[in-house]
Request: fold
Amino acid sequence: MVHVNGEAMELSAGVTLCQLLRQLEITTRHVAVELNLEIVPFERHSECILADGDKLEVVTLVGGG
Amino acid sequence: MATELESKQKTLDAGVFQVGPFELSSRLIVGSGRYENATVMKECLEISGAQCITVAVRRERLHDAAGENLLDFIDSEKYLLLPNTAGCYSAEDAVRVARMGREILRALGNPGADWVKLECLGDSKTLLPDPVATLQATEQLVSDGFHVLCYTSDDPVTARRLKAAGAAAVMPAGSPIGSGQGILNPNNLRIILEYLKDEDPAYPVIVDAGVGTASDVAQAMELGVDGVLLNTAIAHARDPHRMAEAMKLATHAGRQAFLAGRIPKRLYATASSPEEGVVATHPYPRGN
Reply:
């Protein structure tokens, strides 16, 4: 079980961050991912294997002033 | 061959200004929030002539993430994006959001990755900044290599502390965010300009927040600020396209008027036409 943007999700063992984002249909070019309060640079998404209890924040840009 | 007048006009260009590592061609910085829809936003950004656009960082939708994204409407090749930390109430959160914004812009290849508009709020009703948290976040972000543009109140002492902490620009509010009240305390802005530009005339001071209409922008520019950052005044105008044009012109007009130097205010009139040779009788003795 991992938490993505505060939402609990079941993941099979060994799933990478890259695979999770693809599963959620998220365009990786438009987001930043924080794993347990540390940014995971986009170049490392495919080698980042998620573990039980991980807390992820996936953020993007929206309109703002 | 250029006439003398033409070459004079060329030198009248209000010019670019430097903030951190960037040379901005427009002194108007506009936000991308609160528009009726993304198409209106895109058109208004274009009309405003702004080169730099502020954006906010928020959680991605986990369902329907493949839907519309702001970046489908803002050409990141064309605009310099300035991510903000809007909505943060602590230095810790602001630093965290700034790092997220940097990563998004880095992935996009946008040159704005290493700068941030820092907002550390202290109160949800006024959206006034928390000066202590703003200062702490500035110190942290500067040590992380960010060029920090600090949203702050119009307090000259705080402004001076933020500059001393390494802020790339200090951005006092004219009045509360989104309030449209304009420049409430021009004297504080004058003092900020005097303090921050003393022996450092190029140091950027940008009015951020509170602008309601074009005359507010012109007033700020006439005081000598380097730029104005606004959002709601365009986005919520009855005709946003027309207001975007008005803001562009007001920025230019205000800058030119500042450079030109206004005449001093006097209590009594001084005639613009010669007083000699007037074909009329004077009803009162001279001097009354």
Remarks:
- The CA atoms of residues 2 and 8 of chain A lie 6 Å apart.
- Chain A touches chain B at residues 4-7, 24-34, 37, 39, 41-42, 57-65 (CB under 8 Å).
- Chain A has a mean pLDDT of 95.
